[in-house]
Amino acid sequence: MKYLLFPLGVVALLAALGASGAAETVVIVNPGNPVASLSREQVVDIYMGRQLNFPNGSSALPIDLPPDTAQRAGFYQRLVGRSVAQINAYWARLLFTGRATPPRVLGSVAAVLKSVRENRDAIAYVSSDDLDGKVKVAYRFK
Q: Which of 2, 42, 66, 130 could lock 126 by a disulfide, CB 3.0 to 4.6 Å apart?
């Protein structure tokens, strides 16, 4: 039993150390957007189609990464505790009733960053490693 605990403890310690250095997911907006920061609830409302505007009243254009990316899966898991499949089912129901439109999907992080830089109403999520200094961070997961 002692021999089994030591390797598990080492594995847990290494996992914790590795996770602490990992990049975080951040929600970004255009630098010209007057929104300085958003709460988790505001990000949820925008990404789940409950709110079409930023808190200041300007339109919000949410942008998603492709459904098969780990970053999208991690974003929705941390944001609302749902898988990409559950999010897709949620949006299918909303589309059927005509109540909302899902976030626009772009094919790459580079396309997402470009869209946010060029559109004052855009909101997106990226890894903090992908920040280029030409977008503004509006929310960081804690």
A: 130
Q: Is the dihedral of CA 21, 44, 62, 137 positive or negative?
A: negative
Domains of the chain: 23-140 (3.40.190.10)
- Helix, strand, or coil (residue 139): strand
Top pLDDT among 21 and 140 is at: 140
Reported pTM:
0.83
Q: Is 118 exposed, middle or buried (0-12, 13-18, 19+ CB in 10 A)?
A: exposed
Residue whose pair of structure tokens reads 């970053």 in the numeric block: 71
Residues 6+ apart with CB under 8 A from 102: 49, 64, 91, 94, 95
The tokens for 142 are 């804690």
Say if residues 124 and 63 touch (Cβ distance below 8 Å): yes
